[in-house]
């Protein structure tokens, strides 16, 4: 019978051979998940023997992770801005860059009771984070995918925010009414021809959440155009964009008469976000 430490070592070696990023961390997450423990608690149970009842499901998780199934899909959850969200193949897995987007937005000046719209909400992490962090905000969220919206509503219920965020189906702002103080969006921005070459984990995200069109920036540019009719005077637009799109989209914002256009870099120094004001 193998101990927790022996299983962790063997799994780490297996993941390393199969080119799993952060192999030890992945192994710890999966063992902790099977045991119903927090990852940190494993360090006090290294000598614990594992029986077949625990090893059988763990083997299946290890096999799936080694062949590219994202860790978050296996765990069924992801931490985002200090909260735990359900995540699965219905929507894009939230990335650390989007957490940084939240940090920047929450430092921006907003009215005391802002109207906020999250476009392309996916699993709902942006809308629900803003609702939780801005208790006086009136938050709406839209997505073209009914599957993603179902996941977002599950997360709202999970976090006790069902009454705080209105979710509805819309192709960008096609079905949206009214004006907002803040429109935020993390839309598809990968060029269609590059999707097949993305990391195997990313291939588990819905294509609808990745494909930004032939160039990659078409959907974001369309939102820039549509948002003008739905921003209050002085309303803010906050965008997460592709790694090489900042200059072209900033020029588009300028062409569409936005002002105070400000690109912001992510943790790697890439211009990943654009902020602008309209009116």
CATH topology of the largest domain: Rossmann fold
Number of strands: 9
Quickly give the structural class.
Answer: alpha/beta
Tell me the CATH architecture of the largest domain: 3-Layer(aba) Sandwich
Which of globular, elongated, flat, extended, rod-shaped describes the shape?
elongated
**CATH H level of the largest domain: which superfamily?**
Vaccinia Virus protein VP39
| SSE string | HHHHEEHEHEHEEHEHEE
Task: State the separation between the terminal residues, measured CA to CA.
Answer: 68 Å
Radius of gyration: 21 Å
Strand order of the largest sheet: 5-4-3-6-7-9-8
The DSSP helix count reads: 9
Number of separate structural domains: 2
- Our estimate of the beta-strand percent is 15-25%
Mean pLDDT: 97
Which stretches are low in confidence, meaning pLDDT under 50 for 5 or more residues running? none
Description:
The chain is an alpha/beta fold and 279 residues long. The protein folds into 2 domains: 64 residues; 202 residues, Vaccinia Virus protein VP39 (Rossmann fold), CATH 3.40.50.150. The protein contains 9 helices and 9 strands. The strands form 2 sheets. Strands 5-4-3-6-7-9-8 form a 7-stranded mixed sheet, sandwiched between helices. A two-stranded antiparallel sheet has the order 1-2. β8 and β9 form a beta hairpin. α1 packs across α2 and α5 packs parallel to α6. It is elongated and about 70 Å long. The N and C termini lie far apart (68 Å). The mean pLDDT is 97.
